[in-house]
Design brief:
single chain; alpha+beta; Beta-Lactamase; 2 domains; 11 helices; binds zinc ion
């Protein structure tokens, strides 16, 4: 492996190595130990320190230590109290080490860097996040965890615990590989911040454009407050016309204190054939999603 391999390729390689180590507690991945052990074994400029420190405005950092011997340190913000957040930040910084340390001597990563995926304006950050995601949550294992079970926030919460990551990170990972039509929608103060669809949802036209737009949360939804202020983790069946014009949705919502926002998992029925509904190539749909020139998608295109 060299530095040119993608973050995802690095993570898959390390996953293969970890899978072969006998007698270790496989999950959650002990990133702190892995970063130091692996870099010591493989590189002349290893990571020799991982610790929490006061880091105003940043979640984590990776920097070359001053001194005669080439060494690196990873620091995470010591105000992070949730282990899942720390683990993801450590993995993100380890990703910078493996991939980018020949480009820069220091990396300071903000909350946006480590939480917003698919950043087009920051290829290094999204690469480090891909690495963290694949290292902490190998898809094969994740599939096994959810196989044959009904998806809800408790099951995804179990996965988040298993992998030592946040519920958001676990849900985004699930959306990457699930065959189900589903979306995760983040909202704050009544407006949608972002909405991530599964591939099937995207291809079938069930997605929400929000980038650069002001898109209110539907008033009849759980996240929109139609069922009171409290969080409703349990599935709520909503009729067509609430989230999408032509189809009902099952919504499960939690309030995330971490970012002062609501997170809604939307599950859609799998009754439509993808090919019939939309012949537009996926690339075009993705372009449209990211262009953000128009408002919320208004449901099914006629086949
Ligand atoms: Zn970063």
């Amino acid at each position: 492996m060299n530095q040119l391999a993608s973050g995802k390729a690095w993570a898959i390689r390390l996953t293969q190595i970890l899978n072969k180590v006998p007698g270790i507690e496989r999950f959650p991945v002990d990133v702190r130990a892995l970063a130091q052990d692996y870099s010591r074994q493989c590189f002349p400029d290893p990571i020799t320190m991982v610790k929490g420190e006061k880091l105003d405005g940043f979640e984590g950092a990776l920097f070359r230590s001053k001194g005669a011997k080439p060494m690196w340190s990873i620091v995470y913000n010591d105000s992070l109290s949730v282990p899942g957040r720390i683990n993801f930040v450590l993995a993100h910084e380890f990703g910078h080490y493996l991939r980018h340390r020949q480009e820069l001597d220091e990396f300071f990563c903000s909350q946006r860097d480590v939480t917003q995926w698919d950043r087009e304006d920051a290829a290094r950050e999204s690469d480090a996040n891909q690495f963290a995601s694949y290292l902490l949550m190998p898809i094969d294992d994740f599939r096994t965890q959810v196989s044959g079970q009904k998806i809800d926030l408790d099951l995804l919460g179990h996965c988040a615990d298993r992998y030592g990551v946040s519920l958001t990170a676990a849900t985004l990972k699930w959306l990457e590989f699930t065959e189900q039509r589903a979306l995760l929608v983040a909202a704050r103060e009544g407006y949608i911040l972002w909405a991530k669809p599964s591939e099937r949802a995207l291809k079938s036209g069930a997605y929400i454009r929000s980038k650069g737009l002001v898109v209110p949360v539907p008033s009849g939804s759980v996240a929109g407050g139609a069922f009171g202020d409290s969080e409703l983790r349990a599935p709520v069946a909503l009729p067509a016309g609430v989230w999408f014009p032509n189809e009902p949705v099952t919504e499960m919502t939690i309030v995330s204190d971490r970012f002062d926002m609501t997170l809604s998992l939307l599950l859609l029925q799998d009754q439509h054939s993808v090919a019939q509904l939309d012949e537009e190539p996926e690339e075009d749909l993705l372009d449209k999603m990211t262009e953000g020139h128009s408002s919320r998608h208004t449901g099914w295109r006629a086949s």
